[in-house]
Amino acid sequence: MLDNRQVESSAHVNVAGMVEDGIRLARQGSRAEAEILFRRVIQVAPENDDGWLWMAWLADTREESLRYLREGLYFSPDSPSLREGVAWVEAHKPAASTSSKATDAVATAGEAAQATQGRGRPARRRRDAAAVLHDAQLKTRASDAVKASGTAAKQIMQKVATSRPIKVRGSRPGFSDRIKSLAVTLISLVAIAAVVAIALLVARQATDRTPAVSAMVLPTPVLDATPTPGVENLTAPLWTKVEIAFSQEDWTAAVVALDKIRSMDPQNVEARARLSAALYQRSLDSIAANELELAKRDLDRAIILDANSPNLQSTRRDIELYRAALEAYLEQDWPKAVSLLNDVYERTPDFRDTRSMLGQAHCYLAEQQLNNDSLDEALAQATLCEEILEGDEEASALVKRVMETIRPARRIEVTLSDFRVRIYEDNEVIKSFPICYGRPSHPTKTGRFEIQSKVENAYASTWDMDMPYWLGIYWAGGTENGFHALPILSSGSTLWAGALGTRCSFGCIVLNTPDAIWMYNWATLGTVVFINP
């Protein structure tokens, strides 16, 4: 039977409301919730630029942002905002490193600050990153200065020690010698104090974060013993999510994970094939939920990934035929609905409610043909309805009604081959009479007819004779043929009294007079007559 749920489209979804809610969540920092809403937006309304722009904004990498923007251009190739977004992302790709690891650190810090600021976080983090690096440089310089001051002090102390007079046993230094020694000691202490003051001044400059006038000297870079993770290591957790999603038939989760894998590894053949399969399975779920527009969009993406898959092309074709058939069904265009649904049924019998819709369309078409007196066609359509809707009581009752209309229980049947007419009541023969019928030059027609005229004594001007108890059944050119008793000429003589059982008439079916009287009284206008060979 027809599923009365309407096909979902963007017209039935509050896309604008979802966009507003997604923007609000993104600005609040709820990225996961915002991403769910914007992903729904691009599924329901892929022509909506805001959905693609915000998905690109929420992406983890520039490559992923670029992929979203380019995919949006597939649905809206003339969108200026999407084109500007692609140009901006391509123009702001990070430049390759040309110096030491310290230069890389500065570039990485700036990159992280710019990405963070793009997601609505405080711009001061970029300044903080630069400040941390500057502090490290100043502290290194202060340490070097302290070390230098210590070395200088040691050298001065050694000079002082070597400049003292050698003490000779048994002798006492004079007054002048003691004065000289004291002078040398004072000079040494002054030199040491000067070196220490210079070191403290440099250290204080580092503490106060006062920029140095001289060029900044970075400390010697220390190699990181931990290797940078490769693409396989980065995507390994996502592949685990893919396997879990496939095992649980959670096709949306599989699509999300595979999209991220392809953003990291666009050339991965397995990710491409698995994403196409996940989109196909999700389209089948959408079809079952009567979300045909969403199903079609997933199939469009899947076909781009795997254009040679016969299942994808066939299912997409089924959706198109089904939607056209549904429209014809709702408009009660039964011939068109039967034709389109039959195409889907022959390819995919269990596609949604195709079977029940096709059976019902055949039944409605049978009713239409029955009302138009196209009884043979009505019987053919009713029979197909009963076959498709196997066991359906209404379909079986329709077939019985059409058959009774064609061959009712109360009827007249003529069999030309044995020259007899039989009268039926409740499908049982209650009377049987001998007849004669049209000679070869004036044959009697075969087929299904109805009593269309009833005259107690009809006159045939062509033959100048009376035809008592006339029951007309069909027209033959300008004259009518039917049942009647033995004809009487204008002279009063009776014709063909001994010709019953032969071909004697000019096309009519002639009965013995008593038999003709009985059948005339029994028959009514509209009584069905079968003339069989």
Short précis:
By secondary structure, the protein is α+β, with helices and mostly antiparallel strands. 58% of the residues lie in helices and 12% in strands. Residues 1-12, 96-180 and 209-225 have low confidence and may be disordered.
Order of helices and strands: HHHHHHHHHHHHHHHHHEEEEEEEEEEHE
* Inertia-based shape: rod-shaped
Low-confidence stretches: 1-12, 96-180, 209-225
Q: Give the class from helix and strand content and strand pairing.
A: alpha+beta
Major sheet, described briefly?
A: 11 strands, mixed
* Proportion of helical residues: 55-70%
Separation of termini?
Answer: 42 Å
Number of alpha- plus pi-helical segments: 18
Describe the SSE topology.
Elements: H1 15-28, H2 31-44, H3 49-58, H4 62-75, H5 80-91, H6 101-118, H7 124-163, H8 175-207, H9 231-247, H10 251-264, H11 269-288, H12 292-305, H13 310-330, H14 334-347, H15 354-371, H16 375-388, H17 393-406, E1 411-415, E2 420-425, E3 428-438, E4 447-450, E5 453-460, E6 465-476, E7 479-484, E8 488-489, E9 503-505, E10 509-511, H18 513-522, E11 528-532
Parallel strand pairs: 1-11, 3-9, 7-10
Antiparallel strand pairs: 1-2, 2-3, 3-10, 4-11, 5-6, 6-7, 6-8
Helix pairs in contact: 1-2, 1-3, 2-3, 3-4, 4-5, 6-7, 7-8, 9-10, 10-11, 11-12, 12-13, 13-14, 14-15, 15-16, 16-17
Summarize the structure in words.
The chain has helices spanning 15-28, 31-44, 49-58, 62-75, 80-91, 101-118, 124-163, 175-207, 231-247, 251-264, 269-288, 292-305, 310-330, 334-347, 354-371, 375-388, 393-406, 513-522; strands at residues 411-415, 420-425, 428-438, 447-450, 453-460, 465-476, 479-484, 488-489, 503-505, 509-511, 528-532. It is α+β, with helices and mostly antiparallel strands. It starts with 14 loop residues before the first helix and ends with a strand. Helix 3 (49-58) runs antiparallel to helix 4 (62-75), helix 6 runs antiparallel to helix 7 and helix 13 (310-330) runs antiparallel to helix 14 (334-347). Strand 2 and strand 3 form a beta hairpin. It contains 18 helices and eleven strands. Strands 1, 2, 3, 4, 5, 6, 7, 8, 9, 10 and 11 form an eleven-stranded mixed β-sheet that branches.
